[in-house]
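Self-study notes.
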Amino acid sequence: MDLIEKIYNAGIVGAGGAGFPTHIKLNCSVEYLIVNGAECEPLLETDKYLMRAESFKLIRAIEEVGQRVQAKRLIIGLKAKYKEEIKELRKTIEELNSKVELFLLDNFYPAGDEQILVYEITKRSIPAGGIPLDVDVVVSNVGTLVNVFDAINEKPVVEKYVTVIGEIKDPCILKVPIGISVAKCIEAAGGSLLNDYAVILGGPMMGRIIYKEEIEREFITKTIGSLILIPRDHYIVSKKELSIKHMINRAKTACIQCSMCTDMCPRNLIGHKLRPHKIMRSVGMAEGDEKILMEALICCECGVCELYACPMGLSPKSMNAYVKNELRNKGIRYQKEQGETIAKEIREYRKIPVDRLISRLNLNKYKGRKVVGPIEVKSNEVHIPLKQCIGKSSSPVVSMGDTVSKGQLVGEVKIDELGANVHSSIDGRVFEISDCIVIRSDNSEVIS
């Protein structure tokens, strides 16, 4: 069976958060295969764990994928500060006589952004509106490649490693079935230290926020790699609670057009014509300049402008996201820039140190806490979304009352479709079919 078919059968999507179907992404030929081990967001530990504990799987999968995409160079991009991970990877590369290379990055944000990583390693700027293939590169996450190794051995994606940190009794990495509730993950990590809190699903810069009363109704998917518990009145939460009307009013009255949001924008610095300060003015002053507003479509929503750069505490990223959504609802798409894209020379001096970012986000108290694990968690009930990736939702292939086994296909897409198969993550029976498939078994336990 072809590697692409095995990846499709296993239902692999980008594990780093974006969730692009891997069987579609890797159906190509390129010069560079780059594996993202930079753990882009602050405080996260999952990819570091995988590079230490699953280095054999990772290197073997990179070699298999590299052969499939005919890559001349196979490179893992990770931070130079990851001493233990570098040691393990180099040891495995030597044992396997592999041609995989390591590229060591400075500790800056967003080093793990796909387009920034490509520029750091190749010095090629992906054109605005483009993808890595435009510069003969394909990028995949560490966790995705570990899943590829399992797919080669005909094991589908049914489990996820999740970092649980912040206001939690026992910061840890959990190994959980896809579809387990966020509440059970928090319980397995000893519970929260606070009576009231919010949870960031993902990283503090780009993650989605839910509240304590929602944790029973939120479930781990293939793309959620961390849970960060923070006080409900934390700065990050209050920023994301602002209404768009409030953001527009603040832009109108408080934006001083200093252009710091633009000057620090990582995509602007690699040569993209993205100017958040102009978008803020156009929306805030109701100018409606369509050419300016179109620039929002190339914003990656990394949050640098909003959570780090703006001296007035405004919301350029959220404004960009709002404009982007409005334009897409009208069917407007960004046309890829033609010609060579040139990064700005000043870029090297505008990389954001992660330690300074953590301090700016008021997350210092969580930095450096020992993270144990992995702790394997079992659940007697899972809610498995039929859509866990960019693209099309899968279609159920089971019926109410069916008995299913762990790893059994429960939702399917065609191999040429932008979507991914989903599988049962436990043994049990199907109790509900909606946008999720609910499966229940008889017992629940936590295994250390």
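Second protein, same conventions, sequence then structure:
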Amino acid sequence: MQTYLKNGYIVSMDQQDTVFDGGGVLVEDDRITAVGKVDPRLVKPDAEVIDLQGKYVLPGFVNTHVHTSQQISRGVGDDVDFICWLHDRMWPFESNMTEEDSYVSTLMTSLELIRSGVTSFAEPGGQFVSGMARGTAESGLRGKLAKSVMDCGEGLPEIWQRTMEQELEQQVVDLEKYHNTADGRVQVWFGLRTIFNNTDELCVRTKELADQYGVGIHMHVAEAKEEKEYTYARWGEGTVKHLERLGVLDKNLLAVHTVWLTDEELELFKKREVKISHNPASAMRVLGFARIPKMLAMGLRPSIGTDGASSSNHMDMVDEMWLTSLIHKGWRLDPTVVPSQDILRMATKWGSRALLDEDLYGSLECGKKADLIVIDPHGPSMMPVNDKIAALVTAMHSANIQSTMCDGKWLMRDRKILTLDEEAILKEACDRAKAIYKRAGIELPDRFPVVKV
């Protein structure tokens, strides 16, 4: 089956970041077979031909850090400090989730991801890879799924108090059952929650297994000020230097947040080709400002993630790109840092690199997977479009994303989700969230006096 998108503004994100004004994209089955000036002889008589009439075509966005298991906990962490968020809200909520809750929460996440132009994501860890795998397979998205792995730490709910061997064994079982399922869209990585909750031996063994299976490791690294204080008090050094001593720092480590880094640690990232996920909304809430301008100046290639709905409430990559364009200019008092073109790279080809898939997707090139989005700039939020690239970052809303394709299949067409029953998922997710809050004993206080009438 062929699909031919013609007469578009094709932002390829290839090696030269080539833009084809009035160009096209030819898709056959799950692959891109032509980009730019498409030879009409390549288009088969039965191909579906879509006249874009100047609309944008971009590679699908890559969300390198999203907690799918937290989607139905939205609102649980608003306006509370980090420890309260973790011990009194988030852990009680997550530890009371079932596999079916995780599945429905993943479906809810998928709806928001598809609507915001995401075609691939990395999940840092819920407790039920089985539920996440089922939801991801049904959504049509690509997902790198991991278990939230903890073998130590204060305040862990009893149900999560597991040994290192138990945690490793479960991950191997998950990987051997779900890795490369759903036509390869569903993959399984190893997870390390945080340095607070992972023993040195677990970190070392995890690295060995990830290398053995040829997959990545997803870990929160140098996330919070409390983490820096903890590692310096215990080892006299930060998380990154400690991971280097353990032999964990490597090109298959996806380090998330990376806020509290020294110059020496950034140099280690560059030396070891560590992958970076920047989560601006989550960082703005309580973590601090990652040194993205410094990273870019050093030649590092960070990606973008949304974090979970308990942290930022928005799983919208368009919002995250916009925030990325603002916060670094503000805290540096320099309007020239982190330009729009770098942010588009972070959201596309640098994202695929972070997920170890840069040869598979992340740009519109012949032979790559047909993961793409169609953007309609028509409307008061984006028009007039004078700077066509900057507008994608500084003016676009997710409502401008008209259609989303992954693996050559439309997940959303003309703003209608095609792979999932959106209304049914919304209803079930709300019902399940209410039940979990009740089981966990979490009561959110009323912000204003409420009068029931």
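Instructor comment on the second fold: The mean pLDDT is 96.
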